[in-house]
Design brief:
- InterPro entries: Ig-like_dom, Ig-like_dom_sf, Ig-like_fold, Ig_CD22, Ig_sub.
- Keywords: Signal.
- It comes from Salmo trutta.
- The protein has no helices and 20 strands.
- It is mainly beta.
- The N and C termini lie far apart (about 65 Å).
- The strands form six sheets. Strands 4, 7, 10, 11 and 12 form a five-stranded mixed β-sheet that branches.
- The protein folds into two domains: about 130 residues, Immunoglobulins (Immunoglobulin-like); about 100 residues, Sandwich (Immunoglobulin-like), CATH 2.60.40.10.
Amino acid sequence: EPFLLNFHLINVVLCDCVSVVLGKYGWSVTYTTQSICALKGSTVDLSCSFRYPRGHKVTSTFWFTEWGTGVEPEDPVQDPEYAGHVEYHGDKEKDCTLRITDLRERDSSTYWFRLLTDQEGGTYTGSPGVTLSVTGLQVKVTGGHQDKILTCITTCTLTDNPTYIWYKNGQHLDESTSPQYKDPVSSIYIDGYSCAVKGHEELHSPAVCVQGQSCNRVTYTKRRICVLKGSTVDISCTYVGYYSTISTFWFRSDKSTP
């Protein structure tokens, strides 16, 4: 077993939401939330705080996702794959918040915080860590031919009891704390429905045809793009139209008329 486990850890649970792992000699890491479910493409903060014994000076702090026996964990912030994607927002005193932007499904993992000090044996890893699950949105269609039921589904239960927003052919329909659309669903073949979560309206689910598979729908390759001023960018999408398409164009959301 790694020597880090030789501190005789004691698990203490406070308020059903905060886990503190206390070391025998004054070490501790407190994770504000142990489990987070967040939307693909969104930003999430893994918040925590830490303590260490007097007389020690923190020389290094980082988070990691893989920890094998006899293998030193590596800081993902230094990995080119995470460049501009993972940022440490904490310090070397007590705050150990990690921010992950533009979440990807492969970011789903358990994250641990680790600190090193200038004293012999001054290495500590906080357990149990934070389990992050990343999910997209999908519209599930159930029911008979005339009584369709739409449900906005995720692979994990989203944190913070979200409000769901429904769209028909890209136009805002309704908002509800229920993931199920409550009003009658149109049976017109051209209509496509999608859902989003309030606060992340740009992260729509793919549109779903409630009748057949040829309704009007547009699928954007990437919903959020950050580029340098003066550079060139491709904004790409695919589309399906129920009727023959005679024209297509892009428009800006800050213009009153497309």
